[in-house]
Specification:
heterodimer, A: about 350 residues, two-stranded antiparallel sheet, about 75% helix, B: about 450 residues, mainly alpha, two-stranded antiparallel ribbon, globular
C-alpha cells in the first residue's frame, strides 16, 4: 500500500509540474519575448483558460500527501515554513496580476502587472526547484520528526544547511531553464506569426542551457547524496530512467527543428517526468532524508497513514482522478488551436 | 506574544479574509444559473447579458477566492503541524477530495463558461454555468465535512502511535453535524449573493441608469433573498442551534452568555458579558425564551457555564457572545428587509420605493458580517478544543515555528491582503460602473 501511495503522490507532482510548468514558463518569457500589446494578450490568452486548473494539481497533490503521509506533510510544511509562505505570496501575486490584466486598460498599470507576473513566475520556479533539491539533500530532522530551516546559513549543504545553498540553487536553476523551455514550446504550439517564430527560435539556446544544467545537477546530486545511486545499482534496469532523460531531451531538440512543436512539447513533458521519477526513485523508500543521521529519516513506513484510511482513500481517489483527467482532456480539446486566431473574450 | 496565539491569529485572519470570496462565489453560482435558465427559456438577450455581467464579477471574485484559498490548505501543515500529523488521515481526506472532485470540475467549466461562449451551444453554455455552481457547492461541502469532524468527531479510531484514522467513508461524509452546518452555511452564502445582486439593482434604479437591468437584479435578488433569509433562521439555524446545545453545551452557554444554570432560561438580546462577576451587564432579556427555543418548553433547564470546569469554557467568551448576537441580530434584519421588499415587489411598487431601495443598497455588507460572525461563533464555541473533546488547541500548533517567524508571515499576509482588498473593491466597482451592456468585441471568426 505504501508503495502505491508513494507513486500516486509522485504522479500528482509530475502532473503539476508538467501542466503548471508551462504556464510558469510562459510567465518567465512573457516580458522578453513579446513586442506588442497584441502579442502580450496572445501570450496570456494561451494560458488564460487553463492556469487555475493547472494549479489545482498542486492543491489535490498536497491534499493527497496530507492524508496518505500526515507526518511528512506536518514535518515538511512546518520545517519549510518561510519558503512556503513566500511561495504562497508569489502564487497570490501571480494569480491576481494575471486576472487583473484582463480588466485594466491603463498602460502603466499593465506594465506593472506584466512585471509582477514575470517576477513571481520566475521566483516560483526557482523556489520549486530548490524545494525538490532540499528534499533530495535532506534536512536536519530531530528524533521527533520535526525540523525548522532558515532561508540560508553558510550556503553549504552540510549537517546544518539552509533552504538555499549551492546545491539547492543549482536545483532552482535547472527548474528555471527546463520550465522556460517548456513554456517556449507551449507558445510555439499556441501562437502563430512572429511571436510563435521567436518562441520557436529560443528553444535551441535554452536547450543547451537545460542539457548543461541537467548534467551539472546529476553530478552535484551524486556528490551531495551518493546514496541516491543505491536503488539504481540494486535494480540496474531502472537505469532506463536516465536514458529516458537523455532520449527525451534529444527528442525536444530534434522535433523542434523539424517544426513539430506538439511532439517536441510532449518530449519536454517526458523529460520532466523522467527527471522527477529519477529523483523519486533515488529517494525511495525514504521520503525526507535527515542530515542528522539515517535513524532520523522520515521513511515510508514511518509516515504512512493507517490501513483503513488508505483503503478508503484509494477507492475515491481512483474514481475522482479518472474524472479529473477527463475534464483536463475536455478543456484542452475545447481550447486547442492558435490563440491569436481565436475570438477574444467577450 | 505566545506562538499559540500567533498561529491562531494567523489562521483566523487568513481564513476570515478568504471566506469573504467563496460565500459570494457559491451564492452567485446559484443566481447565475437562474439568470441563464430564464435566458435559455425565454431567449431574452437582456437575461443573457445580465448573466454575462454577473459572470465577470464572479470571475474576479473566483480568482480572489482561489489565491486566498491556497494558503488555507498549506497552513494546516505550516502552522498546525502537530494537529496535522495526528489527524491528517481523517481530515486530509475531505481536503484532498475537494481538489479532486470539485476544483477540477469547477476550473474546467469556469474556463468554458467565461472564454467559450462563442465556441459552444447555448445549452452547453447553460450546462457549464450549472457545473460551476455544482462544483462550488461540492467544494463547500468538503470544507464543512472537515470542520464538522473537528466539531463533532465521528467514524474514527486511534492507531497505537496516536494518529486518528477513518473507519467509514460514508459516516465521515454524512456526519450529522456536517449536514446541518452545510444547510445553514449554504443558505448564508445565498443570502450574501442575493443581497449583493439586489444592491446593484437598487443602485441602478436609484441612479436612473440601466433600469431594465436594475429591475432584473432586484427581482431575482429579492425573490431568492426572501426565501434564503427565512431558511437561514428556520429550519436551518434553529436545527443547527439545537444540535450545538445538545452536543456542545458549554459552547451554547457561552454564546448565550448563560453563566448560571437556569430553569426557564431567558434569552439576552443585548448586554456585555462580565467574566469577573459572572453575569451580563445591562441586559435586555426575554424571559423563558432560551428554554423554549432549545427544548420547546418554557420550563426546561438550560446548562450554564457553572456546570463546566473553567478549563473547558470557551477561551474567548465575550467575543463568542458578541459574534453570535451579531449574527442573530443581522439575520433578523435580513428577514424584515427582504419581506418588505418582496411584498412591494408583489404589489409592483418596489422599483419606485426609494427608501427600500436605499436600505437594500446599504445593506449589502451586512451578510458578509453575519457569515463571518457565524463562523466565529462555530470556531470560538469549539474552543478550547481543536478536535472537540479529544485534542486541545494548545497541543496542535507547530511548536517548531517560533512566534517571531509566525508574526513575520502574519504581517506579510496583512499587508498583502490589504492590497488585495483595495484592488478587489476597485475592480468590482469598475464592472458595476461599466454595467451589463456588451463591451466592444474584438472578435475574429473562429477556425
Amino acid at each position: 500500500m505504501g508503495f502505491i501511495w508513494f507513486w500516486l503522490v509522485a504522479v500528482m507532482i509530475v502532473g503539476y509540474v508538467v501542466l503548471d510548468g508551462f504556464d510558469l514558463g510562459v510567465g518567465v518569457l512573457h516580458l522578453f519575448l513579446t513586442r506588442t500589446e497584441a502579442e502580450r494578450k496572445a501570450t496570456l490568452a494561451s494560458i488564460g483558460p487553463v492556469w487555475d486548473g493547472n494549479e489545482v494539481w498542486l492543491l489535490a497533490g498536497g491534499g493527497t500527501l496530507y492524508f496518505a503521509f500526515p507526518l511528512l506533510y506536518a514535518s515538511a510544511f512546518s520545517g519549510f515554513y518561510l519558503p512556503l509562505m513566500i511561495v504562497l505570496w508569489l502564487l497570490i501575486l501571480r494569480g491576481i496580476s494575471l486576472e487583473l490584466r484582463n480588466h485594466i486598460e491603463v498602460g502603466v498599470w499593465r506594465s506593472l502587472l506584466d512585471g509582477v507576473f514575470g517576477f513571481a513566475s520566475t521566483l516560483l520556479i526557482i523556489f520549486f526547484g530548490a524545494a525538490l533539491a532540499n528534499v533530495i539533500r535532506g534536512v536536519p530532522l530531530q528524533p521527533d520528526g520535526y525540523f525548522f530551516l532558515p532561508l540560508w546559513t553558510n550556503w553549504l549543504p552540510g549537517p546544518h544547511p539552509g533552504i538555499l545553498d549551492w546545491y539547492t540553487v543549482i536545483g532552482g536553476l535547472v527548474a528555471l531553464a527546463a520550465l522556460t523551455m517548456h513554456g517556449a514550446l507551449w507558445l510555439t504550439i499556441k501562437t502563430s506569426s512572429q511571436l510563435g517564430g521567436r518562441a520557436h527560435r529560443i528553444v535551441a539556446p535554452l536547450w543547451i542551457l537545460v542539457s548543461a544544467l541537467t548534467v551539472v545537477s546529476l553530478i552535484a546530486t551524486i556528490i551531495v547524496r551518493p546514496e541516491t545511486l543505491n536503488n539504481y545499482f540494486n535494480y540496474p534496469f531502472t537505469f532506463v530512467i536516465p536514458v529516458g532523460v537523455v532520449a527525451s531531451l534529444v527528442g525536444v531538440l530534434f522535433l523542434n527543428s523539424k517544426e513539430q512543436p506538439l511532439k517536441a512539447f510532449l518530449c519536454s513533458c517526458l523529460y520532466l517526468f523522467f527527471m522527477l521519477a529519477g529523483a523519486c526513485w533515488g529517494l525511495y523508500p525514504t521520503l525526507l532524508p535527515a542530515t542528522t543521521g539515517a535513524a532520523n529519516d522520515i521513511t515510508l513506513t514511518r509516515a504512512i497513514s493507517g490501513p483503513h484510511t488508505l483503503a478508503v482513500g484509494l477507492v475515491w481517489w481512483i474514481f475522482g482522478m479518472a474524472m479529473a483527467v477527463g475534464y483536463v482532456v475536455f478543456v484542452y480539446t475545447k481550447f486547442r488551436g492558435k490563440v491569436d486566431l481565436m475570438p477574444g473574450r467577450h | 506574544m505566545s506562538s499559540e496565539l500567533i498561529h491562531r491569529l494567523h489562521f483566523a485572519f487568513t481564513i476570515t479574509f478568504h471566506y469573504l470570496f467563496p460565500q459570494l462565489t457559491m451564492g452567485l453560482g446559484l443566481l447565475i444559473v437562474i439568470l441563464k435558465s430564464v435566458a435559455l427559456k425565454t431567449g431574452g438577450e437582456e437575461w443573457d447579458r445580465a448573466a454575462r455581467f454577473w459572470g465577470r464579477i464572479f470571475a474576479i471574485n473566483f480568482v480572489f477566492g482561489v489565491v486566498t484559498g491556497i494558503p488555507m490548505e498549506f497552513e494546516f501543515g505550516t502552522n498546525w503541524a502537530r494537529f496535522s500529523a495526528l489527524s491528517g488521515g481523517v481530515i486530509g481526506q475531505p481536503l484532498a477530495m475537494e481538489g479532486v472532485f470539485s476544483f477540477f470540475l469547477e476550473s474546467a467549466f469556469l474556463g468554458l463558461f467565461l472564454y467559450g461562449e462563442k465556441r459552444i451551444s447555448k445549452l452547453m453554455h447553460w450546462f457549464s454555468a450549472v457545473m460551476v455552481f455544482v462544483g462550488s457547492w461540492i467544494s463547500g461541502y468538503f470544507i464543512i465535512v472537515t470542520d464538522a469532524w473537528m466539531q463533532h468527531p465521528v467514524a474514527f479510531d486511534r492507531l497505537p502511535n496516536g494518529q486518528f484514522e477513518v473507519l467509514s467513508f460514508w459516516h465521515l461524509l454524512l456526519n450529522p453535524w456536517a449536514l446541518l452546518q452545510y444547510a445553514h452555511n449554504m443558505t448564508g452564502a445565498v443570502v450574501t449573493g442575493s443581497f449583493v445582486m439586489a444592491a446593484v439593482g437598487a443602485f441602478y434604479l436609484l441612479e436612473k441608469r440601466r433600469e431594465q437591468y436594475g429591475r432584473i437584479f432586484l427581482k431575482v435578488g429579492v425573490i431568492v433573498g426572501v426565501i434564503a433569509s427565512i431558511l437561514i433562521i428556520f429550519p436551518t439555524g434553529d436545527m443547527h442551534g439545537k444540535y450545538v446545545a445538545h452536543n456542545q453545551p458549554a459552547a451554547m452557554a457561552g454564546m448565550e452568555g448563560l453563566f448560571r444554570t437556569e430553569t426557564g432560561a431567558g434569552i439576552v438580546l443585548i448586554g456585555q458579558p462580565n467574566e469577573v462577576t459572572g453575569q451580563i451587564d445591562n441586559p435586555i432579556v426575554v424571559n423563558d425564551m432560551l428554554s423554549l427555543l432549545i427544548y420547546g418548553t418554557t420550563k426546561a433547564e438550560v446548562k450554564g457555564l457553572d456546570q463546566f470546569p473553567q478549563d473547558q469554557w470557551p477561551t474567548a467568551l465575550p467575543l463568542l457572545f458578541y459574534a453570535y448576537h451579531i449574527m442573530a441580530g443581522l439575520g433578523t434584519w435580513f428577514v424584515l428587509l427582504m419581506s418588505v421588499s418582496a411584498f412591494l415587489l408583489w404589489r409592483g411598487q418596489l422599483y419606485k420605493a426609494q427608501w427600500v431601495l436605499w436600505a437594500l443598497l446599504l445593506s449589502f455588507p451586512l451578510p458578509y458580517i453575519a457569515n463571518t460572525a457565524g463562523w466565529m461563533t462555530a470556531e470560538l464555541g469549539r474552543q478550547p478544543w481543536l478536535i472537540y473533546g479529544l485534542m486541545r488547541t494548545s497541543d496542535g500548533y507547530s511548536n517548531t515555528v517560533s512566534a517571531g517567524n509566525g508574526l513575520f508571515t502574519l504581517l506579510g499576509f496583512m499587508g498583502l491582503y490589504a492590497l488585495l482588498g483595495l484592488l478587489f473593491t476597485v475592480l468590482i466597482y469598475r464592472e458595476i460602473e461599466h454595467g451589463p451592456e456588451p463591451k466592444v468585441v474584438e472578435a475574429i471568426p473562429a477556425d
